[in-house]
Amino acid sequence: MAEITLFIAFIAGVLSFASPCILPLVPAFIAYISGVSADHLRRGGRRPEIFVNSVLFVLGFSIVFSILGVIINTAFSGIAHDIRIWLGRLGGAAIILFGLYLIGIFKLPFLDRERKIRVKSHHRYVTSFLFGVAFAAGWTPCIGAILGSILVIAITQPASSFYLLLAYSAGIGVPFILAGLFTEQATSLIAKHGKYMKYFTVVSGAFLVAVGFLVFTGQLAAIANLSLAAGLLG
Fold this sequence. Notes:
Layout: H1 3-17, H2 26-34, H3 38-43, H4 47-76, H5 81-103, H6 109-112, H7 124-137, H8 141-156, H9 161-181, H10 183-193, H11 199-217, H12 219-233
């Protein structure tokens, strides 16, 4: 598996975490899954418990995305090369549209609708895990386009789909776990600089347009193969 596509998936996850739909709500997410008050978060109290709940939350959505990667691999691995080329072109065009949507050039109504799944459990750790599963099963308008783009890449490269979605999960999960580990600093940083995070939507859109162009022209696969060959020769 070439590192370039894994890197793209990881960066896509980081951009999802930094999106206006997610980042400002991270303290509320952490407080909810950990069962602590906002005051505890600001003071950095109950750090071990918060950290464990954050890890379980990340584990929940990582498992769902990983299973989705396996399903994509099973469903699309037998597709002929010619069909895969056309899938790449269609997929690249779709990713470009997702990018233009994030930039704000036009609207995609099906991405503007927010999907949510309610979670009920009397055990806090179970709640954290199930909330992670629900996070993967639903989506918000900000990350729908980014996640959709990674799914498109996974379909065009089914042999790598599991690793792509795992890398995407890591891109969201690592910052979230760090926020759970350093809650006081993260809460303060988000409150202080959160207003600038709206620009990440434009950055994310530009990123997707560039990736979509590479997928449409077949350059992403070429770069990945070149990277893989260089690694084998090295």
